[in-house]
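Per-record layout

source: Pochonia chlamydosporia 170
name: Beta-lactamase family protein
length: 581
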Amino acid sequence: MNIYARLSVLLLSLAGPTSAVLNCRPEGPILPKPRLSNSSGIKAAGANLTKTLNNAIKGSIKAGWPVENVSFSLAVVSTDQKNAGVPIWEYHHRAEKNVRGTKKVTRDSQYLIGSVSKVISDYILLKSGVDIDRPVTDFLPKLKSPKSKIDWSGITLRMLGSQLSGAPTNNGFSEYYFLKDLFVQSGFPKLKDSDYPSCGVIGLNKGCSANETLDGMITQYPVTAPMERAAYSNIAFVVFVLALQEVTGKNYTELVADVVSKPLGLQNTLPSPGDDAKAVIPPGNSTWGSDYGYNAPGGGLVSSVADLSKFTYKLLTRSIGLTPTQTRQWLKPEAYTGAYSAVGLPWEIFRPLNLTPAHPHPVTVYGKGGGAQLYSSQLNVVDEYGMGLIMLSAGNPGASIFLSDALLATFVPAADQVAREQAKKEYARTFKSPSSKTQTKSLEASFKLDSDSLVVSEIRDNGEDVFAGIKKMWGLTMGQYTAAFGSTVRLFPTDLAQTAQMNGKNVTGEVWRLWPEFGEAMESDLPGSRLSYDNCLQWSLGDWVHYGKEPLDRIIFYKDADGHVIGLEMPFLRTGVMKPM
């Protein structure tokens, strides 16, 4: 079947009324990423959450956790903050029952961050210069053992870093030796100590060395076949770091320092144990002060809000030491884990539909949660808005989900509203071609912001409806193998930019693409009518129609050094730069 026939079959069924949720759109920002640091909307949202948290701590409202036992730090990071290590909003609380550690919790206070360590470990993997699609056995030949229950030769470093290796979850740590009597009382047969792994079992023996770790990987069972499905593994991170150690000659502590902390200016990010004087230490028996040894890559780092703010800021601004393309690739899923969730490298990706209730659409949250005994952490990157959200807690782990969700529910809709307000001011305008002795045309293009995105209002040339002509040509060309187009044409930013000169000054040209929507769906009494409506295939229609080497869906907004829109160009109409009216 040729491409035209395939498009016809796939797309004819997709026309339908505009959904209440903007499900079918190009992936990425709907509008340009907002400037949040000085936004009154963000400041108001922060003030409201501060008040709510204060009331929860005082007991005026139900917190959902024992506030006297839980210390925490919250922060919001934006691409336009003045200092990478100073979030645009932060909140810190020291529980009244804390007796050890720092007397005042600040952005520089240290927490155990659990599996958020995996983000740092995967960053080290990406920065290593090693081909991460090579089998791990190229670096650790011991894993080629014919006795191994796992075929490590078919497992790459990328699979290990993205939870797709099928490797076991832990090595020794999954043995609950301290509950052995309760196991027997519950009907399990009694075991001898020699029945347990020879290392890594809490309460029985010491931690594992590198060789003992690899021995364990030979004797343990796989959880699933490689690349079959996501299966959470801490030990997978230990294994690929051991591989990097073979290549670089550096252990994990040295890799964290040389690849992450020193280049990025992180003062408090290191393998546990951290500094008691700076630490947020909860009451009770926690794992603060533990030496995680070879297990540190999967969950044994200490960090702070300031350090995670710097890391997130550099990730969001594409200045983290990877190319922009590498960073965009890093923020992509590797496999599905649920209806609205996926896993990346090592992101736990969530796409809720209800984060922006006033203007519903799927919002992609690139998250990573972590936990250690009495410690919880959550790093959420919402790239659509150039925003990061940080939650670190010490105490009852039940607090973490309430705190993390409160950050999302407060600041994502606020950022969405700021993006809309800024886009309406800068882009939802009328642009007119300049008049001159040689230019007889008087071309005008108008855009407005509807409840979902920017849309084309009209394009006229001396009163003639050019917009209707554009839609007509789309219908005559693509219409032969698609459903009929509707009246709405949306436009979305592409994250492509070009530098140009205007009146002797450098300006930035933002490339946008037009996105025609389909009209009403065809009716049918056959089973499954409209079933394919949620399968968004409009992304396959971009760049299909050209006029003299210029795509009919490509337009350029020009911005000055202050970020204000000062011009529009529609190259397919040979408009030149049109000025806002």
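summary: The CA atoms of residues 71 and 95 lie 5 Å apart. Residues 1-20 have pLDDT under 50 and may be disordered.
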